[in-house]
Design a protein that fits this description.
The chain is of the alpha+beta class. It is built from two helices and nine strands, in the order E-E-H-E-E-E-E-E-E-E-H.
C-alpha cells in the first residue's frame, strides 16, 4: 500500500493483511512438502533387534541386528524386498514377499535381484529364515511353531 507523509514524500507501507496471507501460504506450502515428501518411508522395531525397513515403494525388507551374521541372511537383509504383508507373533515374523519390478539398467534397486517371492517365516530368536514358501507349507510351518491360525497379516506400515 502506498501513502504519503506530511512533506509529500511517497512511502510504501506493507499491507498487514497481505503480508500475513503470504506468510500463511509459505507455511502451508512448507508443511505440505514436508508431509508429502516423507510419505511412506519408515523403520519399525521387531523382536530381538531386527528392523522392518521401507526405503521406497518397492523396497520393504527386514534387516538383522547390528553384527548378526546368519547363513540364511543375504546381502545385509534377513528378508529381501518387497514385503507386502507382515504379521508378528512373539519372536516369529511372517508374511508375504512379492517380486519387485525389474530395475532399469544402472538402477540402484540392487536388492530386487535377491528377492525370494512367496511366503516367509523369520525366527528372530535363532535368525532362521524360511522363504519362498507356498501358502499351504507356510501355514503348516506356522502351526508347528505355535503361531495360531488367527494370526493376521497386515500392511507393513500398520505394524
Amino acid at each position: 500500500m502506498m501513502t504519503t507523509d506530511m512533506d509529500g514524500v511517497c512511502l510504501v507501507v506493507p499491507d498487514f493483511e497481505e503480508a500475513l496471507m503470504r506468510r500463511q501460504m509459505v507455511v502451508t506450502a512448507f508443511v505440505l512438502v514436508s508431509v508429502l515428501g516423507c510419505h511412506g518411508d519408515f523403520e519399525r522395531g521387531l523382536p530381538n533387534g531386527y528392523r522392518l525397513v521401507r526405503t521406497n515403494a518397492v523396497q520393504t525388507y527386514i534387516t538383522p541386528p547390528e553384527g548378526v551374521h546368519h547363513p540364511s541372511h543375504r546381502f545385509g537383509t534377513a528378508v529381501a524386498p518387497n514385503i507386502t504383508q507382515v504379521g508378528l507373533q512373539q519372536e516369529m515374523v511372517f508374511g508375504v514377499v512379492e517380486a519387485p519390478p525389474e530395475p532399469e539398467p544402472g538402477d540402484y534397486l540392487q536388492l530386487a535381484h535377491f528377492s525370494v517371492p512367496g511366503y516367509f517365516i523369520l525366527n528372530t530368536r535363532t535368525g532362521d529364515v524360511r522363504a519362498g514358501l507356498d501358502e499351504d507349507v507356510w501355514r503348516a510351518a506356522l502351526e508347528e511353531l505355535g503361531v495360531p491360525p488367527s494370526a493376521q497379516l497386515r500392511h507393513p506400515g500398520s505394524l
